[in-house]
Amino acid sequence: MKVLVIGGGAREHALCRSLSLDPDVTALHCAPGNAGIAEVARLHPVDALDGAAVAGLARSLEVGLVVVGPEAPLVAGVADAVREAGIPCFGPSGEAARLEGSKAFAKDVMAAAGVPTARSYVCSTEDQVSSALDAFGAPYVVKDDGLAAGKGVVVTDDLAAARAHAAGCERVVIEEFLDGPEVSLFAITDGTSVVPLQPAQDFKRALDGDEGPNTGGMGAYSPLPWADPKLVDEVLTTVLQPTVDELRRRGTPFSGLLYAGLAITSRGVRVIEFNARFGDPETQVVLARLQTPLAGILLAAAEGRLSDLEPLRWSEDAAVTVVVASHNYPDTPRTGDPIEGLDEVAREDGPHAYVLHAGTKRDGDAVVSAGGRVLSVTATGTDLAAARDRAYTAIERIRLDGAQHRTDIAAKAATSV
Ligand code: AMP
Ligand code: GLY
Probe ligand 1: pick from 71, 155, 156, 179, max atoms within 8 Å of CB? Predict the structure, then answer.
């Protein structure tokens, strides 16, 4: 099977790495890709938001499957354009991707499906914002209704900061603060059947100890030794299946990857958010542990045959990924800095630790930074402590001026058993 992956972050590098290891994949293409993906896939320039361009590329490459990685093309209807061209596509329609594209829409679906989530108000005037903030009290949770690349949410005790964030957005969702550890659970669905993957935990804040601003994600690990073994089944029954059923009932079935961001509160599991695609950096650790070849799973979802799929096989190993971000991330990141030491990691640490590229590009013989999150150093081991050691050993070999990474990814979980 020939496969085309749309996107160019560490998530797409992880997807391409897994697809390149799948014996059923005879040719792998990625658009636009990055410097690391170029080592496993043929890159093509494309405007990922242009459905006709993506469908045209897929047709000219004669691929049998298109996988759309990021949310923006999904919300823009790129998967619809590919399917209309008669090519199987992994990724929801623009209508179904509103589950991520509009927080207010997601709340409406959850209410209709009886899915547990934070109580909330949708506000578009200053008065509505004031009463909602008063109703819930601190800590305040203010979310931009639209897509904001993981940066639209402000959680703060500072009323003025909460108001200021709301004032900068057209429409916001203000909601009750959820206390408790967070879990990311991904599920593959064809619009009817739902196959959950293994849970992971993401580290959203920029600095050690969960300090600093929210980011797209600074690291992740899987499995979660501290979590209730029944968690996945419970979330399947109370969150994932009802959501998929509700979207089908509305005539806009969700086919692709449904990502539930969950808080495990003292009153039970609550949905913090839905995303309509694989999460980054959690995908890096989830796919590191998945043993079933990936292309067959994604194609089964795209073709509506998930119920025929054999149960997924998982490695007993643990996986940890640590994001290396550029100077000044998540504010305006500095780019164009050379990255050194990548060969050393491949030579000294592979295959148990490896670098997945995010914002990188080639500049002559050099690989240079080209975005906020630059690399995702991923490692596996017999337990989280071993995987963590390998990831941090590999990170020490990488030289990128002004780079930052968290030093506490999976640290607490590694000592929890
Ligand atoms: P989201 O983009 O909705 O995932 O929000 C980003 C991050 O903000 C989440 O991962 C949480 O850490 C935090 N957050 C969002 N909603 C809430 C909430 N209701 N209570 C507490 N923290 C939240
Ligand atoms: N890891 C957070 C996200 O992918 O949105």
Answer: 155
Tokens of 222: 């899987």
Regions of the chain where pLDDT drops below 70: 149-151, 417
The ligand 2 atom nearest the CA atom of 273:
5
202 Cβ neighbours under 8 A, 6+ residues apart = 182, 184, 217, 219, 220, 279, 281, 282
Note whether residue 100 is domain-resident. no
Q: What is the pTM of this model?
A: 0.95
Residue 167 CA to ligand 2 centre (angstroms) = 24
Q: Give the model's pLDDT for residue 348.
A: 96
| Ligand 1 atom index nearest CA of 152 | 2
pLDDT value at residue 176: 95
Same domain, 208 and 264: yes
Contacts of 229 (CB under 8 A, 6+ apart): none
Query: CA 285 to CA 200: how far, in whole Å?
Result: 7
Does 113 fall in a domain? no
Which amino acid residue places its CA nearest to atom 2 of ligand 1? 150
Instruction: Indicate if ligand 2 lies below 6 Å from the C-beta of 280.
Output: yes
Query: Are 293 and 329 in a shared domain?
Result: no
* In-domain check, residue 254: yes
Closest residue to atom 8 of ligand 1, CA basis: 153
Could you read off the pLDDT of 360-400 as tens digits, one per residue? 999 999 999 999 999 999 999 999 999 999 999 999 999 99
Domain hosting residue 363, numbered range: 318-414
Tell me, what CATH number does 362's domain have? 3.90.600.10
Structure-block tokens of residue 192: 């009817």
196 and 304 part of one domain:
yes
Which amino acid residue places its CA nearest to atom 3 of ligand 2? 279
Q: Tell me which of 160, 175, 190 is where a domain ends.
A: 175
Ligand 2: residue of 184, 186, 215, 257 to mutate (most ligand atoms within 8 A of CB) is 184
- Residue 414, CA distances (Å) to 135, 210, 409 in order: 39, 17, 9
